[in-house]
Amino acid sequence: MSDCLLCRRPLRCEILDLGVQPPANAYRAPADLNLMEPHYPLKLMLCPACGLAQLSALVDPGTIFREYDYFSSYSSSWLRHAEAYVERRLAERPLGRDALVVEVASNDGYLLQYFVRRGVEVLGVEPAENVAEAARARGVPTESFFWGRASAGELRRRRGPADLLVANNVLAHVPDLNDFVAGFAAMLKPGGLATFEFPHLERLLAETQFDTIYHEHYSYLTLTVARRLFRDHGLTVFEVEELPTHGGSLRLYAALADGAPPVSARVAALLAREEAAGLGRPESYAAFSQAVARLKLELLDFLLTAKKGGRLVLGYGAAAKGNTLLNYAGLKPDLLPAVADLNPAKQGKFLPGSLIPVVSPGELAAARPDYVLILPWNLAAEITAQLAMVKAGGGRFVTAVPGLKIWP
Ligand SMILES: [Zn+2]
What we know:
Layout: E1 13-21, E2 40-46, E3 53-55, H1 61-65, H2 76-92, E4 100-104, H3 112-117, E5 121-125, H4 129-137, E6 142-143, H5 149-159, E7 162-168, H6 177-187, E8 188-199, H7 201-206, E9 219-220, H8 223-232, E10 235-243, E11 249-256, H9 265-277, H10 286-308, E12 313-316, H11 320-328, E13 339-340, E14 358-359, H12 361-366, E15 371-374, H13 380-386, H14 388-392, E16 396-399, E17 405-406
Helix pairs in contact: 5-6
The chain binds zinc ion (ZN).
């Protein structure tokens, strides 16, 4: 049995067992196909002591993030989200001439590029060297290291404190949350602002988004847990917003506790809602695990019926969440012969576990599928627009989460 990532007490309460799976971003090159593929248990647990939902087993982050195929800039809706954030920051609180903006897990510079265009000094911190290189190529200064108390303290000695710290969709990837959050307190200027975005566990449960559970996501946060974690490291969460991104996210606004702005009523209201939903209690998760099991049966039923009827179903979007779904359902190329993706780095490779080949969107369209199963359901609107030629050829779109849906 492992211990809680936050409070170190033994983890006893299992919420959901998704079987054994390979890391969701470990795409296989053709040369890997004759090699053994590592699999690890994928189980969601709840710590009843501190309320943190988390995986039972941690795959070493050095293994997962050293080479990483996820480039944020491949999603146009995510780019618009980032640009709107930057515009709002600059409008609400102008940054001084010598201000420094630091983004932790800055990926390929998808967000900081908009600060660069407005003449603001930025630094990206991105542990995956190949992704950091892509950011530098687009003119976003980026360093490659793992964020924490010591590395942030060292950065502050070199560069001075940050006026604005940004961390989007990274807390879940962090094995040592205490050390990671301490880094923000170490780097933040007095009077400065830190914002954090992460998928909200409440939405994950309410909308059966179990496929956002994979080995890179060690933990699944609520405002209740995050606020206490930040407080433990001298940061006050004074504002919260609910966002539609990634199926429903929170954006927290934090400042150094000493001199923090007053805490908004929205923070108290959301804390009360989480308490009422029982997110810290294992018994609140029963309906969720039943919905996950039902979703798998619906998807298999659809694919088997299509196959028996001679219909071709192909997938779209070789994203991590798709791999959780495909491997939990036990799918192989016989029922889903290929998955298309816009990212050329993934084309020609094979999805981990299912070993379904990744093709280009052009190859998908040329195969004239009867149905396209859209795996990144959070981008479904964007993807159906990209694949207008499939619809023109008589193909239809299908999503599996939160339940099987054949699009009109
Ligand atoms: Zn705990």
